[in-house]
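User: If only I could read backbone structure tokens as easily as an amino acid sequence. Those tokens are not coordinates but codes from a learned vocabulary of shapes. Could you go through the record with me and say what the backbone is doing? Here is the record:
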Amino acid sequence: MTHKDFSEIENRIGYTFFDKKLLTRAFIHTSTDRGESYERLEFLGDAVLELIVSEHIFRDKPQFTEGQMTKSRAALVNESALVTVARSLRLSEYMILGRGERHSGGADKPSILSDVVEALFGAVYIDGGFEAAKTVIHTLLADSMDTVLSGGGFKDFKTRLQEHYFKLGQSDINYTVYKEEGPPHDKVFYVKLYIGGEEAASGSGRSKKIAEQKAAKKALMNII
């Protein structure tokens, strides 16, 4: 793919890159063995996304408690919310994957799609700075923000678990990756969920987010 192939992505997100290579890198999966991938951009984009969403909730909902802000943020940055963004932008059409990952349907895997959205946010931040990233994120998450902050929300397992324990006055909920297996392009992550400092459940998946959701689901099943 040449850089111009990504011009439609720029149109969809409302931002034009100065460094076209940076935009391309946001779509390169580790399975390509190119010596570069979106992983570092994803790492940065995850932090940028959390900060911008946190700031928006803080300013938009001054009446929210810390627990309500945490719950709202979790609903906006979870995998299912980011996959919705990825599919609305048709990002799967632009994925740069290794042959094996491509043939196994990697372009439509939720874990990869959500990672690419975060990588894209990271790329915008590096290329245009905080305000550019803020504008793009607000634009792409506008509908989700309206839904969540008006009381609708996305009831994923982590959010439901947090809601349950916040009502009980328990906010000490942590997820820890205790093991990783497999090659970089086909890893399995193992997560333990701790509530109040005690292990409550565990889960595994092709991404940390999926593993966390599975652990939360197990914990919820023990409660119900």
